[in-house]
Amino acid sequence: MSAEATNPVSAAEAAVTDPTARRRGRSRIDLRRLGRAALLGATAGPAPRDRLPDAISHVAEAHRAHHPEADLAVLRRAYVLAESSHRGQFRKSGEPYITHPLAVTLILAELGAETTTLTASLLHDTVEDTEVTLDQVRREFGDEVAFIVDGVTKVEKIDYGAAAEPETFRKMLVATGNDVRVMSIKLADRLHNMRTLGVMRPEKQARIAKVTRDFLIPLAERLGVQALKTELEDLVFAILHPEEYEATRALVAAHAHAGDALGAVADQVAAVLREAGIGAEVLVRPRHFVSVHRVRLKRGELRGCDFGRLLVLVAEDADCYAVLGELHTCFTPVISEFKDFIAAPKFNLYQSLHTAVAAPDGAVAEILIRTHRMHTVAEAGVVALGNPYEGGAPDTARTAPGGPGPSLPAPQPEDGERVDPTRPGWLSRLLDWQQSAPDPDTFWTSLRAHLAEDDEITVFHADPGAPGAISLPVGASCVDAAYAQHGEDAHRCLGARVNGRLTPLSTVLADGDAVQLLLAQDTVSGPSPEWLDHARTPAARIAITGWLQAHPEAAAAPADAGPRPQVNVPADRRSGAELHADLDGEAPVAVRPAGCCTPVPPDEITGFRVRGGSVTVHRAGCAAVATMREVGRAPVTVRWGDAAQCRVTLVAESFGRPRLLADLTEAIATAGAAVVSATVEPPSEQRVRHTYTLHLPDAAGLPALMRAMKDVPGVYDVHRARRRGPAEPRDS
């Protein structure tokens, strides 16, 4: 990790610049004190086996606060190996290098990480920066620790050159897919490096801050480690936007007593809850600098209550709703600010009720309501889960920071990405598409785009054989859903039904939609270049781009993949089934089937005289029959003759794709029918309507013909032609 350090900040400075330290009410551990303890440990020889070295005593103290029964012997052994292997190495600020793994381990210990994570954290730079080998770590500390250490170890720059950084991230993410503790250590490592970045050249500070902003902060958000995320945001803010940072810092300093306004509201809230008999702890939580900056941009001039929020901690889930009811009864609620993340947790494990109430002076106070367990997870995310891979182990019993509280049960291996924090859905999707990234640049760019999505939606499979749900970024379309569900088989996707209605693949999905994806049966179909305009996820974009590069002829074809011109084949009016009309002795007249419903034997039929004296024959259920009766036209008795041949007009509804017209006409010819006339309408929203007037040698073959046409890939409906009413939609 090769961290660089600056001169240590004072206790007062640390309390201002470190929001987590400010919340804890004490300053950050002084690196000079760590350095002196480390040097003393090195010069005075190893500590006795019955006690810990002085340099790690504060780590042990923080660890025991969360895990009272933890065995600290393994931490002692890990520290001894790390200190001896890093001995003689110094950071750019002059402190012994061992202060870095100690500081990273302390960060994780204060968040409640279990012993295995802390052991790996102490050793996380040994394989990369010392003579210690991975096999040695495995022999002395086991496979778990060795795997985590390997996961956070950079790839050799001599082997990968400029691709070393993206390939290191790829390696780390793959390792995180098997053990989320890898990313926990990486985040703590980057936090300490960002805290001590001042000695670096400004351009290098900016480069590291941008990578932190684009990759590490979104990963901290997705893993729910808010305590690390908020401090990383402030540190990046100070480097990349120094003027805005200083203005925000001055604003916070000018409103140093802003907490008094929130404190007054907190006292009122606490009194209301006491009177209602609800046991609750009401705290004032100051906003960190980036949060203050965002609120200022949103609201303009800030008032006292805007510089923080109230946090109400209770024992049980039901108490959260009881608190909400009391607050909305005794105060004026701001309904637009209410959000229920308990009934519908965020994808990063976060649970809370959010609301806002109007204070007596008109100021609006935001309030978070959660249990102690929810608070632990909200602050520490996956770190608060202890060892999620060993449910029931002694040191997985976890309590809320700051004192006894309800323990966090080990997660159960149930289905659903919100239930299994060790392999969340976003991580599974990331690991899937990264395998298809053809080069480090594509991976790096796609990863940045993937992590830039701030929120997700959940859509449900409507396919009979694919129950369940998938999560997609907000703004995702049916194209993204297709590749998320079917992988490269989505190349054959022809369309979709969203909530039971046929929709184009460009349709943007909403949270809770039920999606059924329609795939062609052949392997020839492929995506259109236009799909890239509707793809939001890296998985879809990489797959589509790869297919189009492998099939350049498809990329050069018209995007709609359907024939645009209108095709008209002259009709042969001598063809058709025999029709006879009973005209009570009148002279014979022409009898012809109506074009609106094209009756064929053995349809039940009705005839009507039309202008010119001829008789037009309709199916009995045709809408024109009712119209004729309404205007007073008398029906004429008609019947089928002996001839079996007939003429019929069929309408094929389909999704546009290459060779669709050729495949349909081939299916018609194979069924023994002749095309009398055909009309192909221009595509609309990737859908195409084909209308064929066909001559069949035997009317009994009509059902088989319609089935053959419907089996053509891309065709989702075939029906007899009928006249549509003015308010009737195109698709029935």
Count of strand segments: 20
Low confidence ranges = 1-32, 39-45, 392-419, 557-576, 724-732
Q: Provide a count of the helices.
A: 28
Helix content: 40-55%
Strand content: 15-25%
Protein structure class = alpha+beta
Chain-averaged pLDDT: 77
Report how far the terminal alpha carbons are from each other: 62 Å
How can the largest sheet be summarized?
Answer: 6 strands, mixed
Tell me, what's the shape? elongated
Rg, Cα atoms, Å: 35 Å
List the helices and strands and how they pair.
Elements lengths: L10 H7 L1 H6 L6 H13 L13 H10 L6 H14 L12 H13 L3 H8 L3 H4 L4 H8 L1 H9 L5 H4 L3 H15 L2 H15 L6 H21 L3 H15 L1 H13 L4 H17 L5 E6 L2 H11 L8 E7 L2 H14 L1 E2 L5 E2 L12 E6 L5 E8 H9 L44 H10 L5 H12 L4 E6 L7 E5 L4 H9 L6 E6 L2 E3 L10 E6 L18 H13 L1 H5 L22 E4 L8 E3 L11 E5 L5 E5 L3 H8 L4 E6 L5 E10 L4 H11 L3 E7 L6 E10 L5 H9 L4 E6 L12
Parallel strand pairs: 2-6, 7-11, 13-15
Antiparallel strand pairs: 1-2, 3-5, 4-5, 5-6, 7-8, 9-10, 9-11, 12-16, 14-15, 14-16, 17-19, 17-20, 18-19
Helix pairs in contact: 4-6, 5-7, 6-7, 6-13, 7-10, 9-10, 10-12, 12-21, 13-14, 13-15, 14-15, 15-16, 16-18, 21-24
